[in-house]
Amino acid sequence: MAITSFNPPVRTLMGPGPSDVHPRVTGAMARPTIGHLDPAFVGMMDEVKTMLQYAFQTKNQLTIPVSAPGSAGMETTFQNLLERGDKAIVCQNGVFGGRMKEVVERCGATAIMVEDDWGKPVDPDKLEEALKANPDAKVVAFVHAETSTGVQSDARLLCEIARRFDCLTIVDAVTSLGGTPIRVDEWKIDAIYSGTQKCLSCTPGLSPVSFSDRAVDVIKARTHPVQSWFLDLNLVMGYWGSGQAKRAYHHTAPINSLYALHEALVLLQEEGLENAWARHEMNHRALRAGLEAMGLSFLVAEDYRLPQLNAVNIPEGVDEAAVRNKLLSDYSLEIGAGLGTLAGKVWRIGLMGHTSDMKNVMYCLGALEAVLMEMNAPIETGAITAAQQAVA
Ligand code: PLP
Q1: Which of 75, 91, 147 is the best mutation target for the ligand 1 pocket, counting ligand atoms within 8 Å of the beta carbon and taking the most?
Q2: Separation of CA 173 and ligand 1 centre (Å)
Q3: pLDDT (tens digit, 9 = 90+) per residue, 296-339?
Q4: Selection from 33, 19, 15, 3 nearest residue 257 by Cα
Q5: Following CA atoms 46, 51, 52, 54 in sequence, which dihedral angle do they give, to the nearest 10 degrees?
Q6: Mean predicted confidence (pLDDT) in 109-122
Q7: Ligand 1 atom nearest residue 146's Cα
Q8: 374: CA distance to ligand 1 center in Å?
Q9: Residues contacting 320, CB < 8 A, separation 6+
Q10: E strand or H helix at 142, and its extent?
Q11: Which residues is 168 bridged to in the sheet?
Q12: Cα–Cα distance, 173 to 261 (Å, whole number)
């Protein structure tokens, strides 16, 4: 049989990402491809950098999108800041802290782990103890918004502690950027990375990063070159460098993906960052009221819950995979499964970026209620009314 064009089904993406892409973003992506050194393109690159500074709330000059997904942003921060023999304190309270450990070790550095239960935030006291026990640590790394559990850690406090011990900080903001407050300059974060596919309403495949001047000085003073040629920021800056300097070819930029990011950031500016955070919070409140009215509960204590990623305990006796499959087949609605130790224990319902919308909250609650009722799960009705009342 001849293979023909691929036409994906239209889904509502309410899992841990990717989330729904705004139609203006997909529209921007379809614009004509031009050269990566075309003056028109170079002008757009500067605008992307300026708008990323706004999204991260920073004046950091080194604020760019890495041409690859969030994991490449993670690699960029660790590979550029760590050298063989260095020591990094990695806080782990879910899947992505574990990935950080692997990356640290592949840099030839040592990872000192500070572990917390999955579903709990990073414990600042444990970090402080680890710093006292390891005065030679160079870096403290943690995940701001743990997508695997729906937990938010106190980035401001963790960075403050790290700074007291003269450590650089690396913050994973893949799921937080655009969805919940991040203030890179105010919180004195040294290196931060994110992804485009979550709260920015954009397509997957790019990783915004930002580095403080202090971090840039460390990168410039390295004794050995960064192991990865592609991610070596000393080289990448030849292409993404300051507006006046002549740009040189480093790699062929993903032109159309950058149009998409540009449009997503224009959308963020139009809405206003604080309004975007408030929208995520409000839709979370509605979803939460609806789920609780059904009798469902959350994995994470209220104070640490991420508005954009809701980890919901699976009721007794319910076949969680069957529920997800039915939501996908009958309602074209994707919600996420549990990851790692939470596999089979929670669903992860995302309300990120363009997905974070009251219409999707209502759609998800209605579909979930219908599916659970059909499976004779022990739930109550009235979720839609409860959700509506929570934000009335
Ligand atoms: N860090 C966190 C917290 C994530 O949620 C993800 C992806 O879901 C990543 C890192 C990796 O990003 P990507 O899948 O875009 O490589």
Answers
A1: 147
A2: 9
A3: 999 999 999 999 999 999 999 999 999 999 999 999 999 999 99
A4: 33
A5: 140
A6: 98
A7: 3
A8: 34
A9: 314, 337, 338, 344, 347
A10: strand 139-143
A11: 139
A12: 16
CA of 69, closest atom in ligand 1: 15
- Tokens (6 digits) for 60: 């950091």
Q: Which helix (H) or strand (E) holds 111?
A: strand 110-115
**Residue 133 backbone dihedrals phi, psi, to 5 degrees:** -80, -15
Q: Which residues pair with 91 in a beta bridge?
A: 114
- What CA–CA distance (Å, rounded) separates 347 from 320? 8
DSSP state of 306: B
- The whole-number pLDDT of residue 246 equals 77
Q: Are strands 191-193 and 207-211 parallel, antiparallel or unpaired?
A: antiparallel
The answer to whether the CB of 390 falls within 8 A of the CB of 288 is yes
Ligand 1 centroid from CA 102, angstroms: 14
Is residue 308 within 8 A of residue 360, CB to CB? The reply is no
| DSSP assignment of 253-318 | --HHHHHHHHHHHHHHHHH-HHHHHHHHHHHHHHHHHHHHHHT--BSS-GGGBBTTEEEEEPPTT-
Confidence at 241, pLDDT banded by 50, 70, 90: confident
The answer to whether the Cα torsion of 195, 198, 200, 201 is positive or negative is: positive
Q: Please, what's the b/e burial string for 77-96 (b: 16 or more CB within 10 A of its CB; e: otherwise)?
A: bbbbbbbeebbbbbbbbbbb
List phi, psi (to 5°) of 14: -120, 40
CA 379, 381, 384, 390: dihedral to nearest 10 degrees?
Answer: -80
Can you name the residues that pair with 62 across neighbouring β-strands? 211
Averaged pLDDT for residues 115-129: 98
Task: Give tens-digit pLDDT for 75-92.
Answer: 999 999 999 999 999 999
Closest ligand 1 atom to residue 197 Cα is: 15
> How far apart (Å, rounded) are the C-alpha atoms in residues 232 and 253?
15
Q: Are 362 and 387 in contact (CB under 8 A)?
A: yes
The full length of the chain comes to 392
Ligand 1 environment, Cβ below 6 A = 16-17, 69-71, 74, 96, 143, 147, 172, 174-175, 195
Distance CA 124, CA 268 (A): 32
Q: Residue 244 pLDDT > 70, yes or no? A: no
pLDDT per position as a tens digit, 165-193: 999 999 999 999 999 999 999 999 999 99
Say if residue 98 is exposed, middle or buried (CB neighbours under 10 Å; 0-12, 13-18, 19+). Answer: middle
